Amino acid sequence: MSVKYQSIKGMKDVLPSESPKWIFFERIIIEWMKKYGYEQIRTPIIENTNLFIRSIGEATDIVEKEMYSFVDSLNKDKLTLRPEGTVACLRACLENNLLYNSTQRLWYMGPMFRHEKPQKGRYRQFTQVGIEALGLEGPDIDAEMITMTKDLWNQLGFKNIELQVNTLGTVAERVKYRNILIKYLEDNIDVLDEDGRRRLYSNPLRVLDSKNKSMQDICNNAPKLIEYLGKDSLCHYYTWLNFLEKLGISYVENTRLVRGLDYYNNSVFEWVSYANESPLTFCAGGRYNGLMEELGGESKAGIGFAMGVERVLDMLDTKVIPENNNLIYIVHFGNNTDEYGLLIAQKLRNIGFNVKQDFEHSSIKSQLKRADKYNARFSIIIGENEVYLNKVKVKEMKSRNEVLIDLNNLIDFFIKNN
Length: 418
Description:
One of its GO terms (molecular function) is histidine-tRNA ligase activity. One of its GO terms (biological process) is histidyl-tRNA aminoacylation. It catalyses: tRNA(His) + L-histidine + ATP = L-histidyl-tRNA(His) + AMP + diphosphate + H(+). It is found in: Cytoplasm. This protein is an alpha+beta fold. It folds into two domains: about 20-170 and about 230-320, Bira Bifunctional Protein, Domain 2 (BirA Bifunctional Protein, domain 2, 2-Layer Sandwich), CATH 3.30.930.10; about 325-415, 3-Layer(aba) Sandwich (Rossmann fold). About 35% of the residues lie in helices and about 20% in strands. It has helices at about 20-35, 50-55, 60-65, 85-95, 140-155, 170-185, 195-200, 215-220, 230-245, 290-295, 310-315, 335-350, 365-375, 385-390, 410-415, and strands at about 40, 45-50, 70, 80, 105-115, 125-135, 160-165, 250-255, 265-275, 280-285, 300-310, 325-330, 355, 380, 390-395, 400-405. An eight-stranded mixed sheet has the order 1-5-6-11-10-9-7-8. A five-stranded mixed sheet has the order 13-12-14-15-16, with helices on both faces. A three-stranded antiparallel sheet has the order 2-4-3. The radius of gyration is 28 Å and the shape is elongated. The model has no long low-confidence stretch (mean pLDDT about 90).
């Protein structure tokens, strides 16, 4: 009995029927990044495990239970499949001295890996598009990032979405608030669920992010971090919000928005979709001003965001994707017709046409059915008589009209009908 191999749980194939949506999105992203002056960076999918522990935080869900980590059998190094892109991007900048007397605006797209429970919109291998603006510390770049995302959502035709914002202040301000929050949660420990009790001392801010219905009152009534922030943090936050208002971008302040990575500070935000029954975060980010220093570099400001591509594509209405019906399909039957077809196909490809030749040697009827399946606009039909006359039949697939064309006039015909 043969073994039927399947994809790993939580890791999804992108089939040919789905690829056009991905290709469309990738092209949109490339042009969008150019418009805002971001340059692409590509990093390995495997990094040193300690890089993520040090930056993301030991008490985060990602480090505690979601990372795909292993020991290299050759040199015993502890390695991890990247769970997110920011840290790898910063590591590459520091290693290659990209921030010496310079700022950087970078973007990336690629697979990330987290050992989570697979469900709709959540996979163990997933794709992220991320951007990082490094060395820029003002609220103006924070505002441009929001403008940038809003621009993309408009282009993709997204509706029923909401921007949620918050500020996490500085590390020192959060330490002060942390002690106050722990005391509040201790006083209400009988209401905390198992996850809340686990996080009480290791990561109390994440307790506020609980989705457990029985904990909503305690989370909503918790002390607010913003009440413990200093003048500089408040100034940065309200200047950022003022920029958004002047840009005509609506937002909702969510004091429980804390993000799942320890390196965030000051501005944080999420884009949430309400298109389905349950709210879904599809893009999120924020500031990480101390992260480069934590990784061994000079102290520099940073802000970035990432979007889950699978989630974005699930939201994408296929009507916004242009139909690609410029395919020319070559149908042939009889002696020497395959060679004749190969020569014609290559001539057309050389001047920019998309051509697919049938090599299944079946009936004309079957070949034309395949032309319809591939959404071909035209079929070129070649029989022995066409080869002898140095002509071809061209069939317009929608109208089913046919015309016999001299081979010397074929290119002109397709240029006129392109």
